[in-house]
# Entry
Amino acid sequence: MKYVVLLMADGELPAWSGMSEDEQGAMIEQFGEFDRACQAREGVEILAGEALGAGDTSTSIRTRAGERHVTDGPYAEAVEQLGGFYLLEAPDLDVVLELLTVLPAYDMQVSPVVDPY
Amino acid sequence: MTAELDRVVREEWGRLVALLLAHFRRLDLVEDALGDAVEAAARRWAVEGVPDNPAAWLQTVARRRVVDRLRSEAMARRRHALIATDLDRQPQRTMADTGDVVEDDLLRLVLMCTHPALSPEAASALALRLVLGISTYDIARLFLVSETTMAARLTRAKRKIVAAGIPFAIPDLDALPARLATVAQTAYLAFTAGYAPASGPDPVRASLAGEAVRLTRTVRGLRPEDPTLTALLALVLLQHSRRDARVDPKGRLVLLGDQDRTRWHREEIQEAVALLESPSVVGRSLPEQAATYLLQAFVAAEHATARQVSETRWDRIVAHYDQLVSIDPTPAARLARAVAVAEASGPRAGLAALEEVDLPGSHRVAAVSAELLARAGERAAAAAHFRAALELCRNDAERQHLQARAAALAAEPDVTTAAGPPRP
# Structure
């Protein structure tokens, strides 16, 4: 199955800007560790994964009454802090949940990708 | 014949669902096929007699139904999502399996139904449906929703299992205790639903709570050494042992102290007390959830083993509540502790302990205050608290009890008027 993992918010993690270089390095290393854990796990593959720009660099598009409105900022408050995402191939939800314990403790959302067949 | 069919369905449903799922991995087909097999049994056993191995008969018929459905689907060239199993994963993983294949399939089924990615209410209902084979109608009655609402809830839960890839699998040994703790929460939710005060008393719901006891017993049977499931089984057995004495013939609530203790189920109490002394819980450090169940069970056991109310060891009960509040400081635990303190050390001490309880919107604090004020001789204050409690209470049986208590208080001869002017 394919899953999208959204890194929704920092949760109880300290703010990135307030961390020392060492602390930032340690956090980046956790992402490397996640890559390796996924590689080591049979049936698991990271198909895509990116960090996103801050909420104030995003742009929203809404079409209302047929008219397209392009505005500054994220679509909703809930995704203001959306920090990044992964697209994973994995055998089941439990494997995904287990692997995600390797990442820093973000608030995350896991959604299955709809299989069109 | 019908009795035999009922017995097989009752005892073997979960194993049959688990076996068929292990083989076909199609949650949508398996439950329907088994339902069809039970219908066929009702018709054919009446004519042909009960087969030698009724469970195997049902399995064979259900299996044939699934195969038929799979064939017709293959003809329609439709592809269906399968539920994932641990067989899809790398084979060298350390499994918690102990060897008994069928029992492990049953555990896989239980863990799938109670996965933390499902809402607790849905998980609870699904476990009753798939593990115990309780009808949707009865589950709806237990949770006080309409049958349509419950059917929709069950369908949504099953759809999520397939769509989100919740596996039919046993996790690694180090992850299993946490998952069994979720199983315990799910079973306890089903149990408390049966005793949750509803709009009125319903003895059928108490017997449905008995099904939650059966669920707990079934799951603990799969992992008897698990402390959380052991403590929970003791707790629900003790609470359930009082079912026949909790309501009088007119459907009114009977308080613990006034219950006819000869109507408590002694064999269940003995079983629970034995569990509380078993190596699964004694002499080892327990996870928090196991400890909270265990302490509540200790309290229930103190009541259950006191021959009469006057022999209740309130000092020991207060000690159990002190421990409970220290690990799980919920308002409900503090309230129960205050009641026990009042019994052990008098109403004034109880009222002092009540000051720590913050339960906005609930009638219980006011009701307990009223009772303790009455015992302390503060009748005006007691009457005011009874009125406050009645304003907040929405349960028929409890309202009747509060009204009766308030009326009894008002009817008591006023000792203070004889001695002088009434106190404010």
Q: What stands out?
A: The longest strand of chain A covers residues 2-9.
